């Protein structure tokens, strides 16, 4: 009797099983049944060629007239262009970088094609349509009629596995399954009015009606949310069950001395967040808290206070930063804020003081050794570092607190790696400057409690943002450069940000959250983007000499990017911070955390190439002092384009939460979840963390109610089995990444 674990060889035969495995990494019945149709073609509701209108979803029955492959001018990649006909009218199908489609779409073949109708150079077309070809030699009516029902599933296909072939395999797999046991308890299914697992799998692949397909899909989407939330709920229980040293702040220690030095009062929001953290630190169970707040909302001060509270209790604290530049900034900032308090044990230092260490990959071996020694001996109370902190040689005398900055770049695993360096579980505080909608936080950081800083401290200056359309209003760009000069004359400093390091730097494309294929498609598809493609994207290496010889002549300029050596980067950042440079031409290395209060202006070139949140982060670098900040978003995008709409949205609001939501709605799931995507999260096939908010909240509720009654799932062995599988994969993905 077949189950979801049964290998497909016994169901579809050796040859097909091998192709499924090679092409789609599908090896069991379960894998195959989780390869869901992308859409359904509804038989009998075919559109007439003549009636196709731009922007509409359409399904057509057509015959291939010709297929050509051509290069995309000026860049890597090819376009496959297929002309199909219904006997009277013609339509073009386009595919980007899928040369293999040429073989599939041979002249004379017939099939169903589904997609969104677009218009390109005056001709109607379907870009990347889904299609079902009728196997050669088959009678058309018989072939279509052969499918189980009225709704024909269209699967994500590959060169060797057309959709109809996958549909055939699915049918065999469904037929082989018997008495499938549902891992979701019956009472939950009843409560939510969901079909059982067998019905859901059947209906999602071979729907009897559109409604049945929808309900099946919802149930299967809910499954993903439920397993994820159960996994996280169990992890929360497990983490909090551990005991550790409490780190109650002292009234007369280094924290109190630090507060005396602070030139400002904490805001009401900061005080409230601090109370939450102090309560956690005073408990004998470890803290797991996410501190979120916009750039400049004062998170770092709070984190430093938590670190000092731990030093007060005789322990050590570590701050993990995602880049060397950031680690260095934190280190210098801490030194400045602590002053003599950071010179504990040194002549002239304070008796309440401690020492701060910096540990990054670019230290020499001898320097690293020395730092390792100082950390192990406990002489260093606070250590700031990059991934180097996670390496083997690092041992703490008594690690009491781990602060992780900009967590979205780290996975759960890395947090765990640092935790494992403590004899007792340390308290953990995660800081993120990208405000995250609640359900995303629940999915990425579901095991953490959340504190939020909503307001910026008083005295922070507002940032004004303007969009500069470089093509339609070139005089505005000229004016922008004049403004840079004026800003410098007034004693301020300016960042100029470009999307790439040098002109032929394809690797940077990845940063825009698009695959090269998508980018090529986007460009070929709209006239607007053709114009963009014609204007080369700005790069630091090109821009710097142009500006230096041209509009910014006479200013003290330097360039900064990730390909410089760490010492060079450090020297340049230091010079900029010290005011001996006026203008920094840079990539996004300055994206997070960098704090130069005298910088008052930022010009972002090709701003449309950056994500909404990224732009918001970038502009947070200016207006950090007493001068109002100015940010100019330079773009070649057309007035009416989506890109322009996004830039206008960024210019119109400084509410990080609103922008973050806007950003996430436009991204693909993998990018939303970022590096947290591997392991458990790689199981999300149907679930979309923004779209499925209600479902995730429901799943969280159900998961918590289950674990409250049955914290080790002993009464639900099926569900327990599913969770164990997830745990194994989470562990495996961690080991792989190490
Ligand atoms: P974040 O880490 O959230 O980006 P920081 O903690 O770096 O924010 O604070 C940004 C700036 O605001 C720093 O220069 C900091 O010294 C200052 N700051 C923090 N809290 C206050 C406050 N309560 N009042 C005035 N300035 C503050
Ligand atoms: Mg910061």
Can you walk through the features of this model?
By secondary structure, the protein is an alpha/beta fold. It has 3 domains: 9-177, OB fold (Dihydrolipoamide Acetyltransferase, E2P), CATH 2.40.50.140; 254-453, P-loop containing nucleotide triphosphate hydrolases (Rossmann fold, 3-Layer(aba) Sandwich); 463-653, Rossmann fold, CATH 3.40.50. 41% of the residues lie in helices and 17% in strands. It is built from 27 helices and 21 strands. A 7-stranded parallel sheet has the order 11-12-10-13-14-9-15, sandwiched between helices. Helix 8 (197-205) crosses helix 9. The longest helix is centred in the first third of the chain and has 32 residues, at 210-241. The relative contact order is 0.09. The model is unreliable at 506-534 (pLDDT under 50).
């Amino acid at each position: 009797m077949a189950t979801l674990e049964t290998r497909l060889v016994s169901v579809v035969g050796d040859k097909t099983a091998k192709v499924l495995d090679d092409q789609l990494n599908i090896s069991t019945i379960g894998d195959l049944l989780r390869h869901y149709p992308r859409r359904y073609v509804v038989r009998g509701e075919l559109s007439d060629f003549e009636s196709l209108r731009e922007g509409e979803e359409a399904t057509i029955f057509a015959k291939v007239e010709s297929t050509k492959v051509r290069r995309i001018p000026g860049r890597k990649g090819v376009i496959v262009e297929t002309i199909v006909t219904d006997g009277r009218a013609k339509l073009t199908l386009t595919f980007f970088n899928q040369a293999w489609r040429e073989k599939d779409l041979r002249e004379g073949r017939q099939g169903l094609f589904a997609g969104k109708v677009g218009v390109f150079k005056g001709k109607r077309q379907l870009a990347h349509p889904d299609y079902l070809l009728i196997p050669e030699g088959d009678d058309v009516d018989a072939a279509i009629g052969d499918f189980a029902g009225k709704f024909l599933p269209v699967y994500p296909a590959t060169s060797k596995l057309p959709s109809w072939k996958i549909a055939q395999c699915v049918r065999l797999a469904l037929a082989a399954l018997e008495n499938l046991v549902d891992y979701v308890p019956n009472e939950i299914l009843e409560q939510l009015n969901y079909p059982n697992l067998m019905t859901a799998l059947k209906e999602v692949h071979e729907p009897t009606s559109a409604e049945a397909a929808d309900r099946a899909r919802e149930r299967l989407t809910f499954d993903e949310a439920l397993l994820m939330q159960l996994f996280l709920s169990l992890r929360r229980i497990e983490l909090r069950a551990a005991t550790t040293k409490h780190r109650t702040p002292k009234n007369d220690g280094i924290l109190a001395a630090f507060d005396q030095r602070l030139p400002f009062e904490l805001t009401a929001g900061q005080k409230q967040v601090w109370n939450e953290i102090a309560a956690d630190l005073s408990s004998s169970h470890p803290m797991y808290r996410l501190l979120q707040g916009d750039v400049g909302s004062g998170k770092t001060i709070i984190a430093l206070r938590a670190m000092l509270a731990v030093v007060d209790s005789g322990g050590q604290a570590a701050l993990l930063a995602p880049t060397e530049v950031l680690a260095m900034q934190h280190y210098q900032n801490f030194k400045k804020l602590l002053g003599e308090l950071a010179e504990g044990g040194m002549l002239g230092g304070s008796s309440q003081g401690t020492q701060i260490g910096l540990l990054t990959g670019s230290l020499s071996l001898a320097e690293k050794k020395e730092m390792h020694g100082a950390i192990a001996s406990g002489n260093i109370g606070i250590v700031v570092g990059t991934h180097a902190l996670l390496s083997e040689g690092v041992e703490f005398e008594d690690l009491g607190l781990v602060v992780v900055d900009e967590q979205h770049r780290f996975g759960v695993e890395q947090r765990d790696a640092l935790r494992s360096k403590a004899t007792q579980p340390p308290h953990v505080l995660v800081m993120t400057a990208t405000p995250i909608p609640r359900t995303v936080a629940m999915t990425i950081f579901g095991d953490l409690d959340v504190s939020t800083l909503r307001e910026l401290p008083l005295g922070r200056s507002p940032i004004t943002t303007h969009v500069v359309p470089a093509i339609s209003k070139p005089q505005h760009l000229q004016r922008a450069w004049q403004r840079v000069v004026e800003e410098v004359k007034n004693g301020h400093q300016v960042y100029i940000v470009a999307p790439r390091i040098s002109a032929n730097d394809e690797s940077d494309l990845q940063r825009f959250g698009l695959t090269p294929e998508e980018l090529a498609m986007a460009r070929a598809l709209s006239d607007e983007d053709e114009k963009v493609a014609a204007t080369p994207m700005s790069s630091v290496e090109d821009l710097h000499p142009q500006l230096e010889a041209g509009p910014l002549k006479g200013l003290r300029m330097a360039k900064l990017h990730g390909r410089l050596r760490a010492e060079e980067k450090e020297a340049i950042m230091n010079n900029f911070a010290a005011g001996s440079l006026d203008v920094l031409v840079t990539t996004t290395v300055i994206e997070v955390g960098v704090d130069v209060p005298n910088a008052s202006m930022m010009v972002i070139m090709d701003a449309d190439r950056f994500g909404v949140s990224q732009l918001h982060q970038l502009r947070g670098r200016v207006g950090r002092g007493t001068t109002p900040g100015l940010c100019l978003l330079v773009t070649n995008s057309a007035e009416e384009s989506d890109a322009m709409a996004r830039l206008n949205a960024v210019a119109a609001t400084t509410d990080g939460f609103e922008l973050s939501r806007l950003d996430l709605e436009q991204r693909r799931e993998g990018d939303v979840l970022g590096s947290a995507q591997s392991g458990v999260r790689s199981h999300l096939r149907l679930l979309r963390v923004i779209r499925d908010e209600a479902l995730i909240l429901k799943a969280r509720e159900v998961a918590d109610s289950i674990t409250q009654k049955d914290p080790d799932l002993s009464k639900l062995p099926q569900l327990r089995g599913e969770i164990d599988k997830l745990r194994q994969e989470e562990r495996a993905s961690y080991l792989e990444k190490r």
